[in-house]
Write a structure and sequence with these properties.
The complex is a heterodimer of chains A (95) and B (482). With 95 residues, chain A is mainly α. Chain A has three helices and three strands, in the order ααβαββ. The chains are: A mainly alpha (95), B alpha+beta (482).
Chain lengths: 95, 482
């Protein structure tokens, strides 16, 4: 699958990363290289192999359902840019 | 053209846990903003999620209750999007390998003007664990939005159906059944006002007989059954009219406005949804073994389906009655209590599903708020069974019990509702009536069957409704024919 500069810009937008034309061009080369590598790997027969979802052969440990966190709002909000009445403030968002 | 509506549901049920799905912060509803938003909830750098055991047990319970396959290994994935109430920039959810696989739920669709009541089995595609987002508060500060992250990280089970429903009534019946089930098995408090149970409804239409699905529009975040019914009906009509006018349906997300009763498309996003799911490297695969399932299974109450079968075999109830009575745990418990207090099962079923449910509905009351106890209802039914009162009189007693006017026997006495079953007394009434209605007697003898019913009516009237109708019938017949 060949990527275009348009694809790169869209991917950057989805990740909210600002890139200029020059960066888009160099990213295109790098990402195309990675896709090329993946294409090569597609040649391997993976029949019967469970797709890897984690690099370690471990399973998820579970936590007991007990409240362990206390209210630290003041501490957390001390480093927030803007707060009001306990709310974090952000530029207005309306759907 | 004849149209058919096709409906599928996605339901977010908030799981009944003390803490969040990936942290030890409390999930209590209604706390001061951000007082339950710990470092994981607000996504401080370097924090890691740790999965809540109770949330996993809730998912297993649900899987067992809908006879679904529970995945021996399921995987958490990141769903990437940007919104201020999602500070990580992604929601932890499950994608390719959900915890609960294919299952099914049998629903009861009530009778309507044009159709009889019927049952239908709805296929459930999957159910997966995920975290809820926070809440945006608008209008508090000019030009700004306030973010409350107390809800961020609250455990949800998203339950997805196949597009199996064919009317708003079926969709509502499914939603109600699911709502009862998740409360029955104790995994969700079912509080719709607080958002513990929210439905997204996918609606499309197609020419009747076609097996190709039409383009769907998704109605988001319905948190009342009434709104769901209205929204689907409006949306269906809108889609049919659009197509009949030669228009096309665009896939879209729509919102329902309860004030206007209309659905309206949300501003279409410039970018199509592209969540770029990938396995979350912060979480290992969730492994569920047979012994986990067995342990959780032992915690489950008797399921509605099993109880339904028991009602049919133990009480000889019809399948429909049994499933109606097991539509909620409270209703089933009330019915069983009535039978255990000595009432005839069939009669108890009729009264619990009939007068009792109607009264609760009319007054918008829960069973737990009923002024009439199961023991009182049983006492009333015993008085019908032993011929102390007629069915009609029982209705009056029922009303009086509901109004809190005392106990069954005292009410019967006070209102003078005791049925006359004494043959002599009834014969006296019949003789009197026959004497006064010679014309009717002649008519009957001339072959007019209707005259007989009129005479029965006269006898009942003469007894002020207290005579045992069956006895009046028998004795009158003997008198006229004998």
């Amino acid at each position: 699958m060949a990527l275009t500069t348009e694809d790169i810009k869209r991917i950057a937008y989805l990740a909210r990363i600002e890139i200029n034309e020059q960066e888009a061009a160099s990213t295109l080369t790098k990402l195309s290289g990675i896709l090329g590598l993946i294409e090569q790997m597609q040649a391997v027969d993976t029949t019967g192999i469970v797709p890897m979802s984690h690099s370690q052969e471990l399973e998820q440990r579970l936590r007991e359902d007990v409240v362990t966190q206390i209210n630290q709002r003041e501490t957390f909000q001390a480093i927030a840019p803007l707060t009001d009445s306990g709310l974090y403030l952000v530029p207005k968002v309306i759907e | 053209m004849q149209w058919e509506v096709v409906i599928g549901l996605e339901t977010h049920t908030q799981l009944k846990t003390n803490t969040k799905i990936f942290s030890g912060a409390s999930t209590t509803y209604g706390a001061e903003p951000n007082t339950q938003a710990c470092e994981v909830s607000i996504a401080l750098p370097g924090v890691l999620p740790v999965l809540n055991k109770q949330a996993v047990e809730c998912a297993i319970k649900f899987g067992l209750a809908i006879e679904a396959e529970i995945a021996p290994r399921s995987v958490f994935a990141r769903k990437n999007y940007f919104y201020p109430d999602l500070p990580k920039g992604y929601q932890i959810s499950q994608y390719e390998l959900p915890v609960v696989g294919k299952g099914k739920l049998t629903i009861q669709v009530p009778a309507s003007k044009n159709t009889e009541a019927y049952e239908k089995t709805i296929n459930i595609t999957r159910a997966h664990l995920e975290e809820d987002a926070g809440k945006s508060v608008h209008g508090a500060v000019e030009g700004m939005s306030g973010i409350d992250l107390n809800r961020a990280g609250t455990p949800l089970l998203e339950i997805v159906t196949e597009p199996d429903m064919r009317s708003a009534a079926e969709a509502v019946a499914y939603a109600k059944k699911l709502h009862e089930l998740v409360q029955w098995i104790g995994i969700c408090d079912g509080n719709m006002q607080e958002g513990s149970f929210r439905c997204d409804v996918n609606v499309s239409v197609r020419p009747k007989g076609s097996d190709k699905l039409g383009t769907r529009r998704e109605i988001k975040n319905l948190n009342s059954f009434k709104f769901m019914q209205q929204a689907i009906e409006y949306e269906t009509q809108w889609q049919i009219e659009t197509l009949e006018d030669g228009g096309k349906i665009q896939q879209a997300t729509v919102l329902f406005n309860p004030d206007t009763g209309e659905t309206r498309a949300m501003r279409s996003k410039e970018e199509a949804n592209d969540y770029r799911y990938f396995p979350d490297p912060d979480l290992l695969p969730l492994v569920i073994r047979e012994e986990d399932k067995a342990r959780v299974s032992a915690l489950l109450p008797e399921l509605p389906q099993a109880l339904q079968t028991r009602f049919i075999t133990d009480y000889q109830l019809s399948s429909y009655d049994a499933s109606t009575l097991t539509s909620s745990k409270a209703l089933a418990d009330y019915f069983v209590a009535t039978v255990n207090a000595g009432a005839d099962a069939k009669q108890a079923a009729n009264w619990v599903m009939g007068a009792f449910s109607a009264k609760l509905n009319a007054e918008d009351k829960l069973i737990s708020e009923s002024p009439l106890s199961a023991v009182q209802l049983a006492q009333l039914l015993k008085r019908i069974a032993d011929n102390t009162i007629s069915n009609n009189a029982a209705k009056q007693v029922f009303e009086a019990l509901w109004a809190g006017e005392g106990e069954v026997d005292a009410i019967i006495e006070a209102k003078g509702l005791k049925q006359v079953s004494d043959t002599g007394a009834i014969e006296a009434i019949i003789n009197e009536v026959l004497a006064q209605n010679q014309a009717m007697v002649e008519e009957f003898k001339a072959g007019k069957e209707k005259a007989f019913n009129a005479l029965v009516g006269q006898c009942m009237k003469a007894s002020k409704g207290k005579a045992n109708p069956a006895q009046v019938n028998d004795l009158l017949k003997k008198k006229l024919l004998g």
